[in-house]
Amino acid sequence: MTRLLDVTGLEGGYGSVKILNGIDLYVDKGEFVTIIGPNGCGKSTFIKVLFGIATHYEGTVIHDGEDVSSWRTDRLVKRGIAYVPQVNNVFPSLTVYENLQMGGIRLPPGILAERIERAFDMFPDLKPRVSDLAASLSGGQRQMLALSRALISDPQFLLLDEPTAALSPLYQQQIIERIDALREHGITVLIVEQNARLSLARSDRGYIMAGGEIVHTAKASEILNDPDIGKYFLGIKDE
């Protein structure tokens, strides 16, 4: 497979507070890769450093063959990278349609309209709510809207920070299924997820992070079937 992301020795954090201690990680084109680990281990910080919204200290980030370490967020977006944060990921006072317009505010009107229709094709639950305020949506619908808005920029690489957090089990399943289906459209996915079993079940590979470091990596199926990992990271109890 062709390498899309190659991270080596990445250190980063917030201001002078270092959170990441030398992360090595890669993602191939077309993959669905999940990062799991305990709260506070640096998973979300890692995604934010990749997207230029947390501080990069050392290490290299190679995207599609080019060194993008310390690039500004706007340059990364133009390069085909999109990010959906865990919270504050929609504009609640705007309608569904206006939120989607914000995702492509600099696009020509015709292209923007086409991409909004494509977003509705991917997330049909939103179309009946097109004129409703985002504040009126359920948690699952808001997450669908956040994902849809990210897709307006036509990304090739999607960074997701706990997209199923605080959702009902039904919406958790739907969101992960929709994310997995994005690969049919040529989108590669790197996801940080607390619902490890749900995300790993759809993933090609997984990484386990603890204390700002990668402590284990393997095929997702191997992580799911490892009894020690299941006990400490997946919430599986001994029989």
Topology:
Elements: E1 3-14, E2 17-28, E3 32-36, H1 43-50, E4 55-63, E5 66-67, H2 73-78, E6 81-84, H3 96-102, H4 109-122, H5 139-151, E7 157-161, H6 169-181, E8 188-192, H7 196-200, E9 205-210, E10 213-219, H8 220-225, H9 227-233
Report on the structure:
This protein has 9 helices and 10 strands. With 239 residues, the protein is α/β, with parallel strands linked by helices. It has a single domain (3-233), classed as P-loop containing nucleotide triphosphate hydrolases (Rossmann fold, 3-Layer(aba) Sandwich), CATH 3.40.50.300. Helix 3 runs parallel beside helix 5 and helix 5 runs parallel beside helix 6 (169-181). It starts with a strand and ends in a 6-residue tail after the last helix. The mean pLDDT is 94.
Keywords:
six-stranded mixed beta sheet, Rossmann fold, alpha/beta, 9 helices, single chain, globular, four-stranded antiparallel beta sheet, 239 residues
